[in-house]
Amino acid sequence: MDEQADIDERITARFIEQMEKASAAGWQKPWITTGQNTLQPVNAATRREYRGVNVLMRWVAAEITGYQDGRWASFKQWQQIGAQVRRGEKGTPVVFYKELPRRGGSGADGPISGQFEGAAAEATQSGTDLLAKTSYVFNAAQVEGDTPPQRPEPPGLAVRLESAERCVAATGAVIVHGGDRAFYRPAEDRIQLPPREQFRSSEGYYATALHELTHWSGHRSRLDRDLTGRFGTAAYAAEELVAEIGAAFLCVKAGVTAEPWEDHAPYLKSWIAVLKADNQAIFTAASQAQKAADYLVGLQMP
After folding, report:
1. How far are the Cα atoms of 170, 178, 190, 212, 247 from residue 174, in angstroms, in the given order?
2. I want to staple 83 with a disulfide (CB 3.0 to 4.6 A). Which of 143, 180, 210, 231 is the partner?
């Protein structure tokens, strides 16, 4: 097995394991820390936010271990800022991409097309391929000698809901309220949501709206994802996975808690099937979800 395939298999196996545990528990999103706002993972040395699949891997690790700190860094980076990883601590993989000269001509179909995140995708347009590599990082809870920065007091619920409302309103999407189902209809380019009062909380309303807006971002006039899959197909499950992850990214940005969806146990099983059939699926879904989140957040910019 080559290094690329090994990376795909090991990371996909971790997500499958977490999804199967979530499925056995009834329903729990495997990347959302239960009972609290999920932290945006950042590199403790560079202060840069992790993106795409690397966010999901930090969330899964935090869920397993109960880490309450969103800061991560490599062994050497912790040393550089005056801390030391405790003996016996195990790192969590982080995926990064190395540019290589393209073999066999140019074009956008490199050997790992679809897996890259953010600006890294541009490399395929400039005569280079991207090769995935892994390194390991450690959470702040795994080190000694760290002086955590003082955290600002988190904003109140009203401020967080206002942030979510700005994100929704800035899209200009057609949102119709009524009925008892939430969905996006590409043919009409509109979102249907139940009335706000039917949701258990305002946060639940915005989490659902952000899920459907992630679908909305995939319209052919926007990010042009494949939205043609019917319920029960792999394409449908893949797009639902993109929307679920995209909504999670957006909820963290807005500071709202993404609540479990009681009817999503079948979706979880379908996602497990997708990941088992394709080791690259979680990379692609996370990359597309990050692009969708970036697009929707960007609509708030003047």
Report:
1. 11, 13, 5, 11, 18
2. 143
Q: Domain boundaries in the chain?
A: 41-144, 157-298
Residue of 200, 186, 241 lying closest to 249 (CA atoms): 241
CA 125 to chain centre: 24
Query: 42 - beta bridge partners?
Result: 49, 71
Q: Using DSSP, state whether 135 is helix, strand or coil.
A: strand
* Residues 292, 246 contacting (CB under 8 angstroms): yes
Kindly state the tokens that stand for 282.
């979680």
Q: Which tokens sit at 131?
A: 């090769």
User: What is the Cα–Cα distance from 11 to 4, expressed in whole angstroms?
Assistant: 11
What confidence tens digit (pLDDT) does each residue in 31-86 have?
554 444 468 899 999 999 999 999 988 988 887 788 889 999 999 999 999 999 99
Q: Which stretch of DSSP H or E encloses residue 112?
A: none
β-bridge mates for residue 49, sequence order: 42
Q: What totals of helices (H) and strands (E) does the chain contain, helices first?
A: 8, 9
